[in-house]
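G., the chain you wanted modeled:
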Amino acid sequence: MTFQYDADILETFPNTAGAVIYAPRIHNEASSDDLKAAYQAEQHATIERIGDTALGDLPSLAAWRRTFSAFGVSPTKTRSAPESLLRRLTKKGDIPSINALVDIGNLVSIRYALPVAVFDTQAQTGTLMVRYANGDERYTELGSNEIKHPEQGEVIFADDTGLVFARRWCWRQSFQSAAKMTTSQALIVVESQHTSGKADVQKAQADLLNLLTSYVDGDLSHAVLDANNPQF
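Predicted structure as tokens:
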């Protein structure tokens, strides 16, 4: 497993911080009753904590809005993953359970208002790189087998073959990278762009490690990446 931020990305977005967890042998399953209860409790706590605050006023989400705008994507038409989650939660009052890995990722994402990507890495070839898209990479949406292509210049997660794991940085994952019941190896990445983000992703990583240890079997290795340490 190699995961890396491209130098051009870090030059343009020097506040980038990413906490990485790799689980090469993991057993995913439906969330246990205890995990579902913890997930529901976090959803209620998050709703109370946010209250009447506009999501765009949360520092972490505001930073992702600026980041999306910087690479040419409207942040109100294309919302970051944590903003989409929190928007659903605050409007509908509930985020449904999917499976243990996804629920753990979403629990931590809403707690810190940060993107938490849980990647199934079985389809990965070579290095998974956060970089600008050339436009000829391959992307397949969830629930589809149609191959699409990212827009040139948007930020993507892609491997050495041009297989896209996520588009528009932290907008949407691909069919191949989504965590399923059959996922046996996973890479989990929590990221930030705001000025105090590194400390926040470290806290989020600690919570993820505790939850993964409690609810999902597997060996875990981890690191925190930034402009001075761009590769795992």
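The chain has a mean pLDDT of 97.

Shout if anything looks off.
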